[in-house]
Task: inverse folding
């Protein structure tokens, strides 16, 4: 059992992008000089927990901006960059709809004080009235979503932070007590 865990950890470390491989990409190359400090690449309990929190919060950003938002926030927080980028991948085409629906519910609950408000139905897509009806739908749907997405992001970031922090403590505790017994 212990050998399987060690093998799995080595595999994860092997798959984790290095500084050189990450900034070889033309998209990230302009940011390379900002991330030359060792604290962006050293993994410990504090940096792992904050990196997961950054990734969980930034993962709710619209698709193409997730990595760049995580890159900027990881720079500001001075946390482990590869883990922050990797954690944003919890959102994907299968999870976006449930997460954004949950964010809508949170936003409508906070804005209107009513939980479980039904999401407005998408208007019929007719050529003549498409612009005005669709715009009204976006306004109705958008306000609660604009409130709910950051709130859900903060909730997920807080949960992720404490899960990693306490999980790291638990693993360290078990490892210490296992070594004491032996």
Result:
């Amino acid at each position: 059992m212990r050998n399987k865990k060690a093998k799995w950890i080595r595999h994860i470390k092997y798959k984790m992008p290095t500084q050189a491989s990450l900034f070889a990409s033309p998209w990230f190359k302009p940011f390379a000089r900002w991330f030359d400090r060792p604290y962006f690449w050293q993994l410990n309990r504090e940096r792992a927990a904050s990196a997961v929190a950054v990734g969980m919060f930034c993962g709710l950003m619209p698709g193409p901006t997730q990595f760049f938002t995580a890159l900027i926030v990881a720079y500001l927080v001075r946390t482990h960059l590869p883990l922050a980028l990797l954690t944003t991948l919890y959102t994907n085409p299968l999870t976006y709809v449930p997460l954004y629906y949950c964010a809508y519910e949170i936003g409508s609950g906070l804005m209107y004080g009513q939980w479980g408000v039904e999401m407005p139905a998408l208007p019929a897509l007719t050529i003549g009235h498409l612009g005005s009806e669709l715009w009204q739908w976006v306004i109705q749907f958008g306000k609660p979503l604009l409130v709910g997405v950051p709130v859900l992001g903060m909730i997920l970031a807080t949960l992720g932070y404490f899960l990693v922090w306490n999980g790291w403590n638990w693993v360290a505790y078990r490892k210490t007590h296992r070594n004491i017994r032996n």
User: Anything to note?
Assistant: The CA atoms of residues 5 and 11 lie 10 Å apart. The chain has one domain: 2-181. DSSP finds seven helices and no strands in the chain. The mean pLDDT is 83.
